[in-house]
Amino acid sequence: MNASELIDIVPFIQERAPAMGRSKVQELYDACSTVFSGKEGFPTLKQIRWLREILDDMEPADVGIDGSRSPVDEPKIASRGGLILGQALTQMTYVHIHECDDFSMGVFCFPAGAKLPLHDHPGMVVLSKVLYGSVSVRSYDWFITPSSRPRKGGLVKVEADDVVLQAQSKASVLFPRSGGNIHSFTALTPCAILDVLAPPYSDELGRPCTYFSETPIPSLSGFSILEEIDLPEDLVVAGAPYLGPELILDPDFDGLY
Ligand SMILES: [Fe+2]
């Protein structure tokens, strides 16, 4: 076996090796570093399966969140026992875990009824895992490459039509041109979604987050026209600190340890 063949199988040796006492979020970070850092092109299906298996094993406490239902008579508090009390949050909240040039990790926490409107992920691979609660997802892929003049828009095909995802659901994945790259979330109950974005959004590098309005086409079931809109004024996302296990970041991480 030559060196390049050996490097190819390192992630899969790691997959089967003992976790060596690493936290699950550390395991996720290390795997993302292996798969995404400094790599050209898209991950292989084996790598995607590896990341999904790690995500499927994650629970709210692994990222510093208590996802259990609060007693009705308990005063609304933001945290308890060193964890963010997810079900006490009254507005959409993003818990930033990590971001580097190659990927980002974070958690969107939703109160019941909150909606993250239609938005895209240009050139990105996105893995999402519901940690608690349930959420309805609508997603689309461009059917015709979108025009960008005067604003981005075009014809899309429905990929997920109000599909309900819950903590028991497997992690989902979308790709730059498939899998539902444009999506919206509506929280059916208080819920949280752990997201991995690779690469992260970047206005400077041509990966802005664009929001869209939707006009269904009555005569063409499963298709809609999307048009770029300004950031919705009623979209407010609060920030909350990450309270989970400390991440050990290795700028020289090469997948071997
Ligand atoms: Fe998204």
From TrEMBL:
Record-level Gene Ontology MF annotations: cysteine dioxygenase activity; metal ion binding
Keywords, ordered alphabetically: Iron, Metal-binding, Oxidoreductase
Catalytic activity: L-cysteine + O2 = 3-sulfino-L-alanine + H(+)
Cofactor(s) for this UniProt protein: Fe(2+)
Any one GO biological process: detection of hypoxia
Top-level enzyme category: oxidoreductase
A Pfam family reported for this protein in Swiss-Prot or TrEMBL: PCO_ADO
Family annotation (Gene3D superfamilies): Jelly Rolls
The EC number(s) this enzyme carries: 1.13.11.20
SUPFAM superfamilies in the record: RmlC-like cupins
Entry similarity comment: Belongs to the cysteine dioxygenase family.
Protein name: cysteine dioxygenase
The gene coding this protein: LOC105056776
